[in-house]
Design a protein that fits this description.
three-stranded mixed beta sheet, 2 helices, single chain, 5 strands
């Protein structure tokens, strides 16, 4: 939660995940938060989590919550879901 919509958060997340070699997805939720599901090496996932805590310029991230993804989330590429 925070100010994460209208600042390019999903595109920034996709570029960051691609750079880290992660698969998964990012999408806006109705409550104004953003959901990110990512799969990859533990080191890359830790780096993504740290990056998400700051977000892109103009974003205000209040909280990042990490949970185990559903087994069906595994994919090679990272994409934006609508």
């Amino acid at each position: 939660m925070g100010r994460v919509q209208g600042v390019g958060f999903r595109w920034w997340t996709m570029r960051t995940a691609d750079r880290l070699g992660l698969g998964g997805s990012v999408r806006n939720l109705r409550d104004g938060s953003v959901e990110v599901q990512a799969v990859g090496s533990p080191a890359a996932l830790d780096e993504l989590e740290s990056a998400l805590a700051s977000g892109p310029p103009g974003a205000r991230v209040d909280r990042v919550e990490a949970v185990q993804p559903d087994p069906g989330t595994a994919r090679d590429e990272f994409r934006i879901e609508r």
